[in-house]
Amino acid sequence: MIALDTIREAHDRIRPHIHRTAVLTNQTINEKANARLFFKCENFQKIGAFKARGGLNAVLQVAANREGKAITTHSSGNHAQAVAFAARQVGLPAYIVMPRTAPQVKKDAVLGYGAEVIECEPTLDAREAGVRTVMERTGAVLVHPFDDDRVIAGQATAAKELIEDYGQEARFDLILAPVGGGGLLSGTALSTRYLSPGTRVVAGEPEGAADAILSFQSGRVEKAPYINTIADGLMTSLSERTLAIIRTHVTDILTVSDAEIIAAMRLVWERMKIIIEPSCAVPLAVVLKHPDQFAGQKVGIILTGGNVDLGKLPF
Amino acid sequence: MIALDTIREAHDRIRPHIHRTAVLTNQTINEKANARLFFKCENFQKIGAFKARGGLNAVLQVAANREGKAITTHSSGNHAQAVAFAARQVGLPAYIVMPRTAPQVKKDAVLGYGAEVIECEPTLDAREAGVRTVMERTGAVLVHPFDDDRVIAGQATAAKELIEDYGQEARFDLILAPVGGGGLLSGTALSTRYLSPGTRVVAGEPEGAADAILSFQSGRVEKAPYINTIADGLMTSLSERTLAIIRTHVTDILTVSDAEIIAAMRLVWERMKIIIEPSCAVPLAVVLKHPDQFAGQKVGIILTGGNVDLGKLPF
């Protein structure tokens, strides 16, 4: 189990490289939700998403311990940018295996951090094979997007900051995060357990990638019955590691439809004037869908990221 | 001439009703501009724009002095919402004359603050006639969008906050604001003159509404040669009042094309993850267009507002 000290050390390690992001509130959305919502704005984080935290915590340790001569991972999303960014901070080469179908804008972002992009077929097998080849060729160390205690401890620092900065004022009844592979949710649950033990942790998941809710119920890592959602950051299944933490420390997982996700995303854009990506809107969609459950509550929400393709908006 | 004490009193008057908005910086945009930019985020202001400041300062005084039984104005933009919002704060009825061609979403926003919308033909004559009819019928007082010292003193509080909060750290070489009717620019110039006298004030104006640059040169209120710009908040001409302040206290007015405005707007959306409207992107477009003029400078920029129709984006 990841100890509180491990999360504190992670925070000290990454602090010089990250933003302590703002926490915003919005009167109109509070009125609509009939609750007091505190949004932790990781869309303002380096690389535009909380993933910078976990990527940095892992990569800084790989570099300090001289565990390898390079870093690798496979991802088409924010974790790819996070690892590329973190590797640049420590001066290690980064090799990012990306499906050839990934948008050019995402490949360009990774290239922009000085990493090498290795294209592969868009299957999990091909991605994992690509990473193995890189590791053999370059001596690179894999930084997994979520199945890694160092990554989880890094992601835990977002909720830690939220509680440190607003826990006294807000006395959170709940903290909400979205769930994909479960790295952020695990870290959020651990920080909340340690630093605000009376606060429940609830996850939001898209209906079109509903694996975590199944795994949460059965206790085994399950696959989603189907994958079809606009929340492209939340398509992954849990690992044994994240499921164990989530089963122990998370109260509930609630699902929302893509229409509900888009409506919540639009509400945040229009009312808060900040840009969030679809995956990021899932917890607010949960709150708006279940007004009875959240009425009168003080709710912390991790806004996970703001990386959207402005040419392909769902509005 | 509006005195510093008048601006201070305006600030004290409106402070309970407004946000002291954040000032954001962005490393990528600084690198691109080769300058240090400090963005005063009035897109996070009440009603989504700085106009709340001037509207409130005028309406609160109308109410306190019992100058009329209601408030009226004509506007299809943020001033309409500002006056409706301010009137609600003091419990006075508001009658907003809007061209029948204004987007329904803007009419709805005004209605949402409890104001009455009076539709008219989309000409300045019809709008002014509409306001006269309202004044005769209801005893309402007109709050002009910019040709009013109380409105200018209210708008001046944005630059006042920027200087109070970041002037010590930034020691601004320049402060930039866009210019439409000149209310914000006048207020910005006055606050800067009083509170940071070594700082130059420069305005940005769209090529497709280039009246202020002509008036600035000739010393007379001029019309734009043509009106055709995406910056819908900046189509108005100056008044004698705003021109006099601007000629005395503003260093320069620089113009930018719609393509430059859209590129600057997109850069802010993508990199800062905040929503700004086209008019709001004009000063940054000016900085990016003239790298020689701004290289190495410390620049305050008033981000004026974030009210966009998400269904009609220029990307």
Q: Could you explain how this protein is built, in words?
A:
By secondary structure, chain A is α/β, with parallel strands linked by helices. Helices cover 47% and strands 16% of the residues of chain A. Chain A contains 13 helices and ten strands. The longest helix of chain A is centred in the middle third of the chain and has 22 residues, at 149-170. The A-B interface holds A 22, 43-44, 48, 266, 269-270, 272-276, 306, 310-311, 313, 315 and B 22, 43-44, 48, 266, 269-270, 272-276, 306, 310-311, 313, 315.
Summarize the structure.
2 copies of one chain form a homodimer. By secondary structure, chain A is an alpha/beta fold. Chain A has helices at residues 4-14, 27-33, 51-64, 78-90, 104-112, 124-138, 149-170, 183-195, 212-218, 240-249, 258-272, 282-289, 291-294; strands spanning 23-24, 36-41, 70-74, 94-99, 116-120, 140-142, 174-178, 200-206, 252-256, 298-303.
Keywords:
16% strand, 6-stranded mixed sheet, 13 helices, homodimer, 4-stranded parallel sheet, 47% helix, alpha/beta, 315 residues
